[in-house]
Amino acid sequence: MILVLHNRYRTTGGEERAVEDLLWLLREHMGSEAELLERDSALLGRSRAAVGMLRGGLDQDDVAAAVRRTGARVVHAHNLNPAFGWRALAAARAEGARVVLHLHNYRLVCAVATCFTRGAECKRCHGRNTLPGVALNCRGAATEAAVYGAGLSLWQRRLTECADAVVVPSRFAHARLLSLGAPLGPRVAVVPHLVRDVAAQSNAAAGSYALVAARLAPEKGLDVAIDACARAGVALVLAGDGPDEAALRIRAARVGGEVRFTGQLDHERLVELRAGAGLALVPSRSAETFGLAAAEAMAAGVPVLASAIGALPELVGEDDLVPPGDGSALAAAIPGRFGDAEAGERGLVRVRERAGPQAAATALRAAHELAGVVAPESAA
């Protein structure tokens, strides 16, 4: 039995999807029993969340009780802030469970988890020194910035010390966390985000628009996609919502491109959109820890053009990368990749090898073995 812990974010994002996919992998592909113990920041309230951050977690006895009730031998922890914290992991270990800490982003050191602030990459915070994030007010509210800065500084080392193994989604994410002074320890495994379904073939030749599926936020480089598609004369669909929507609508009107904003969509609707796309763009300005949007487009057989930043080069072929923030380079690359079924077929092979169910299961078993789990082939 595996007990999965996850503190949902106020705004649902890719990590929630990754947790759902991991549960599917464990139950349906690896034949394991798995149960989710979840808390939700949107329901917690800011005062209670602040207490959780500064204390290192809330109600850890609930975690101990869940381990006893389920007989879990592994606790696989995703986002722990603010409600779980290190105390949840310590409680699980006290009950005899092995603990795997799954880091999807840079939140061990960075209060906003992206290493991106004020329109640019940022590595000012380092190790326990989180004062730059407080001074820059990266959380958007002075009190919250101070609480997160203090909580991360106080408990980051205790958190990783409570883990028997740490999981990251890419080699780049591992290297970046080390460069940030994150106390990862020696037992670190790379487990890619899972892509459940890989298409049998690419239908990109029938596509009629370029697609970007992302939060409408500065680090995603959506202004670059708007400009590039306008120059290339290709229609663009932006799937997602976020703080930059109004500014992006103004930009689209100014440059004269054909841009459709869909808002936030569920998985089924995104599948439909990818089926009609001739190209997917991932024009990130920040250092992605994996590139789930790129992987899901590749798994649908859609050719991808992405920024040469973060972990994206590990996933996307070298010929399909452009410098981040370079609208001219992206515009020049679009005509050669739009509707390119051969590129779509190459993407299918790459994503299956790197993030398909078999690849993810093999990596996850290795992570559990690293944590000292007996009989990792059963993921028990």
Treating each run of at least 4 consecutive H or I residues as one helix, how many helices? Answer: 16
Class by SSE composition: alpha/beta
What is the first-to-last residue Cα distance?
A: 5 Å
Q: Which bin fits the share of residues in helices? A: 40-55%
Can you give the mean pLDDT? 94
Q: Main sheet?
A: 6 strands, parallel
Textual characterization of the structure:
Helix 12 (292-299) links the parallel strand 12 (277-282) and strand 13 (304-307). Helix content is 44%, strand content 16%. The protein is globular and about 60 Å long. The protein has helices at 14-29, 41-44, 46-55, 60-70, 85-94, 131-135, 142-161, 171-179, 222-232, 245-255, 267-275, 292-299, 312-315, 327-337, 341-355, 357-370, and strands spanning 2-8, 34-40, 74-77, 98-102, 116-117, 120-121, 165-168, 188-190, 209-213, 236-239, 259-263, 277-282, 304-307, 321-322. The strands form three sheets. A six-stranded parallel beta sheet has the order 2-1-3-4-7-8, sandwiched between helices. It has a six-stranded parallel beta sheet with strand order 11-10-9-12-13-14, sandwiched between helices. The protein starts with a strand and ends in a 10-residue tail after the last helix. Helix 9 packs parallel to helix 10 (245-255). The chain is an alpha/beta fold and 380 residues long. Residues 376-380 have low confidence and may be disordered. It contains 16 helices and 14 strands.
